[in-house]
């Protein structure tokens, strides 16, 4: 079975070992121990990848933990409905952010065009 050291995971995901230990402290990762050495399994590596992706997408650690707990347990109808609710809420937030980003990108493009036009006009006046 493939195992990983904390330093290997930190290097692969470009994060600190302190961050990985923090995720362990809050219950998101559960490495095995060999004495004082943490030994991470493929499951831990996958979870770390999901944690980092979730954070980039705006999920809180509490939301990530809740999703992991729902995944780890026998999923009742209530749990599945809760998971769908979390997914729907996050999807709505991300769609709003995407729309906001699109508006800002258009505004930036307009501002860029105005600046380029003003610079060109300024150069033309100086050339005369």
From TrEMBL:
Tagged with keyword DNA-binding: yes
**One GO molecular function term?**
DNA-binding transcription factor activity
Coiled-coil positions: 94-125
Task: Provide the alphabetized UniProt keywords.
Answer: Coiled coil, DNA-binding
Q: Domain named HTH merR-type: which ranges?
A: 3-70
Upper classification of the organism = Bacteria, Pseudomonadati, Pseudomonadota, Gammaproteobacteria, Vibrionales
In its UniProt entry, the species of origin is given as Photobacterium ganghwense
Family matches, as InterPro entries: DNA-bd_dom_put_sf, MerR-type_HTH_dom, MerR_fam
Q: Which domain of life is it from?
A: Bacteria
Please indicate if the UniProt record lists Kinase as a keyword.
no
Pfam families with a match to the protein in the record? MerR_1
Query: Could you tell me what this protein is called?
Result: MerR family transcriptional regulator
> Record's PANTHER family?
HTH-TYPE TRANSCRIPTIONAL REGULATOR YFMP, REDOX-CYCLING DRUG-SENSING TRANSCRIPTIONAL ACTIVATOR SOXR
């Amino acid at each position: 079975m493939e195992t990983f050291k904390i330093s290997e995971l930190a290097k692969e995901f470009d994060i600190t070992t302190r961050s990985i230990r923090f995720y362990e402290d809050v219950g998101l990762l559960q490495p095995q121990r060999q004495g004082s050495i943490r030994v991470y399994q493929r499951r831990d590596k996958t979870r770390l990848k999901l944690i980092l992706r979730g954070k980039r997408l705006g999920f809180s650690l509490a939301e990530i933990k809740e999703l992991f707990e729902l995944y780890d347990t026998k999923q009742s109808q209530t749990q599945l409905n809760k998971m769908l609710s979390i997914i729907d809420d996050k999807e709505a937030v991300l769609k709003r952010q995407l729309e906001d980003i699109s508006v800002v990108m258009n505004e930036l493009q307009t501002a860029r065009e105005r600046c380029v036009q003003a610079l060109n006009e300024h150069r033309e006046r100086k050339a005369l």
